[in-house]
Amino acid sequence: GPAGENLVRFACVVSEERVAGRTGCGAVMGSKNLKGIIANGRRKIEIGEQDKYKELQKKMTKFLLAHPMTGNVLPALGTANIVNAAAGHNILPTHNFKRGSDHRAVDISGEKLAAKYLKKRVGCSSCPVICGRGIELRMKDADGAEQLVGATSGKHKGISKGPEYETLALLGSNIGNWDLQRIFEYNYLCDDLGMDTISAGGVLGFATELTEKGMLDSPLSFADHGSIPELLQDMAHRRGLGDDLADGVKRMADKYGGHEFAIHVKGLELPGYDPRGAVGQGLEYATTNRGGCHIQGATMYLEAIGPINIDGLSPKSKPQLVTLQQNL
């Protein structure tokens, strides 16, 4: 997409509606004038021991569907189930990580999404959990007419990909946006343009606080989000203020100031877990080679959002726990 072509530092590589989102691999492709990779062929990949494979597959599927998270919570609510849990543990990024909770979190929660907007559960290939959120999304075209966006054919016709937790947190609470429909739109735009929703939400939150403090002239506000769709387009095409936003939080802070509230680790914007309420997760951010990344350990799962939690505020045993999680 245009974000990769224009070397946005958090450009993605996108395959249909699945995204390799973080650290700007789309910009690496763009720097090489590589537009895409296509794989085809008809040869079936043979499995060496078919019977043992099927036996293992049945065993693992049974295990997953019997587990309270992968068999119940995730199919019902998707990763959006984390919103209320994160807010309850004071780790939901709110207003550029000023706070870790807000009573309006219920308005962007998995429960609200499932009750009001879920049209179909969708899932990754061969996965029995099927936790993706299939929604209906209508957006205005160039002539101002509303049209349904999403799959144009097949079993998911008319269905668009709903947001995962990180998108709800960073393009929702982190920018003061408590409107699920707006999050659906921003999520779609980021996918379509090829931008990571975590870093996009992180840089918008930072720019909003810069604006609030009089350090940046922009239309951004934690209360008014009307300018964001156009800004996302400007980021992907590096136009005007979008050119600065496309460089991410660290470089914006180098240019405009505000390092004390520039939320990143090693130049990578933080995901939806405030480390002040999950100090093991903070240690993970500090020691992973990617910086602000939650998938090289996910210690917060054991501190705040999992079925069983240890004290997120205590540093006791956290070095050992982070080491265990990172090794796993």
Give your account of this protein's structure:
The protein is mainly alpha-helical and 328 residues long. 41% of the residues lie in helices and 8% in strands. The chain contains 15 helices and nine strands. The protein has helices at residues 2-5, 25-31, 50-66, 69-77, 82-88, 110-116, 165-170, 180-193, 197-212, 228-237, 241-245, 248-256, 279-287, 300-305, 318-327, and strands at residues 13-15, 18-20, 120-122, 132-135, 137-140, 146-149, 160-161, 264-265, 268-269. The strands form four sheets. It has a three-stranded antiparallel beta sheet, covered by helices on one side. The chain has a two-stranded antiparallel sheet with strand order 1-2. The protein has a two-stranded antiparallel ribbon with strand order 5-6. The longest helix has 17 residues, at 50-66. It is globular.
The biggest sheet amounts to: 3 strands, antiparallel
Q: Walk across the major sheet and give the strand order.
A: 3-4-7
Spatial gap, N to C terminus:
34 Å
- Rg (CA only): 20 Å
Write the H/E string, N to C.
HEEHHHHHEEEEEHHHHHHEEHHH
Helix content: 40-55%
Low-confidence runs? none
The backbone outline, from C-alpha atoms, is globular
* Total of helices: 15
What is the topology?
Blueprint: H1 2-5, E1 13-15, E2 18-20, H2 25-31, H3 50-66, H4 69-77, H5 82-88, H6 110-116, E3 120-122, E4 132-135, E5 137-140, E6 146-149, E7 160-161, H7 165-170, H8 180-193, H9 197-212, H10 228-237, H11 241-245, H12 248-256, E8 264-265, E9 268-269, H13 279-287, H14 300-305, H15 318-327
Antiparallel strand pairs: 1-2, 3-4, 4-7, 5-6, 8-9
Helix pairs in contact: 8-10, 9-12, 13-15
